[in-house]
């Protein structure tokens, strides 16, 4: 199977799983991955219903947005995706969702602090909030990049969630963990006073995982 076909298949499969998991509704949410040479990007199309989406609906674009394959427009957030893929050579995929618990913290502008030990392994630590920028803008990607240092996920102010990964599967599972952590944080806030992962334990875990604060 050629690389383009494989990329379209992976983007479609991960998109449909994410939709079934409720990570986004309607035609919102968008996912992308680049090829190993970092020349082309497979990205979800703009405004196509997930129920009927097929591999051929996945758009192939260049990093500058030029459409190479596909009969639709690429996601309106292609500038955000390519800004991140251009700058972060260590990652190969970007997932953007509007998952409700996490997006509620994006609306109030509160980071999800380090409340679960698994957040270190999957997300690199807490879930920071990127400054507000307009949807569809390059600046949205740049504001996310600002807070994605030593982190694999962030909240986009008044908008949603962004995760990155070396593969699209990894970026997707991180989006699942962002929603899980946000849901637990939301419930914990109602249950009592929240205790963070003890600093000493977090330090030891970071050393074990080889990640920086
Ligand atoms: Zn969005």
Structure characteristics:
213 residues; alpha+beta; L-fuculose-1-phosphate Aldolase; eight-stranded mixed sheet; 7 helices; 15% strand; binds zinc ion
What features would you describe in this structure?
With 213 residues, the chain is an alpha+beta fold. Helix content is 41%, strand content 15%. It has a single domain, classed as Class II aldolase/adducin N-terminal domain (L-fuculose-1-phosphate Aldolase). The chain has helices spanning 3-20, 78-87, 100-108, 118-123, 138-147, 168-191, 199-209, and strands at 30-34, 40-43, 59-62, 67-69, 93-97, 129-130, 153-156, 160-165. It has an 8-stranded mixed beta sheet, with helices on both faces. Strand 6, helix 5 (138-147) and strand 7 form a beta-alpha-beta unit. Helix 2 crosses helix 5. The N and C termini lie far apart (40 Å). The model has no long low-confidence stretch (mean pLDDT 97). The chain binds zinc ion (ZN).
Question: Could you give the distance between the termini?
Answer: 40 Å
Number of helices: 7
Helicity range of the residues?
40-55%
- What is the CATH first-level class name? Alpha Beta
Overall structural domain count: 1
List the SSEs and their pairings.
Layout: H1 3-20, E1 30-34, E2 40-43, E3 59-62, E4 67-69, H2 78-87, E5 93-97, H3 100-108, H4 118-123, E6 129-130, H5 138-147, E7 153-156, E8 160-165, H6 168-191, H7 199-209
Parallel strand pairs: 6-7
Antiparallel strand pairs: 1-2, 1-5, 2-3, 3-4, 5-8, 7-8
Helix pairs in contact: 1-6, 2-5, 3-6
This protein binds zinc ion (ZN).
